[in-house]
Amino acid sequence: QVHLVESGGGLVQAGGSLRLSCAVSGRTFSTLAMGWFRQAPGKEREFVTGISRGGGKTTYGDSVKGRFTISRDNAKNTVYLQMNSLKPEDTAVYYCAADTHPLWNPKSATRIDEYDYWGQGTQVTVSS
To answer: Tens digits of per-residue pLDDT, 63-91?
Structure first.
C-alpha cells in the first residue's frame, strides 16, 4: 500500500509563494509517476501538474503554467510543488497522487483516473 502525506500548505498573500511537499512510502518511489491536483469549494478536482518517474518530463495545467514548478527527489521519496505569484483563485485543497502505470505521457497524466493513490490533501489559502 502506497502512503502519501502532503505538507506545506497555509495562508499567503496574493503574489506570495508556497512550497508543498508530498512524502511517499510503501513502494519504490522511482517506480511512481506523480501528480498534483487541487479542489476548491464547490468545484471539481482539477489537474495542476504531473511528473514522470525519473523527473525528466513534466506537464502543467494552463492556469498554473509559468507560476508553478513540480520537482521530485527520488532519494528522499518526495515530490514538491513550488508555487509562485499566487492568486486568490489558487485557493484550494491540494492533493498529491501516485501513478503506478509503467508508461507516462503528458495527456494521461492530467486524468484523475490515471492515479492509483492519493494523499489526504493540504489547504492553500491565498488572500487578496
So the answer is: 999 999 999 999 999 999 999 999 999 99
pLDDT for position 16: 98
Distance CA 37, CA 111 (A): 10
**Could you please report the per-residue DSSP string of the chain?**
--EEEEE--EEEETT--EEEEEEEESS-GGG-EEEEEEE-TTS--EEEEEE-SSSS-EEE-TTTTTTEEEEEETTTTEEEEEE-S--GGG-EEEEEEEE--S---TTGGG-GGG-SEE---EEEEEE-
Exposure string over 89-104, b if 16+ CB within 10 A, otherwise e: ebbbbbbbbbbeeeeb
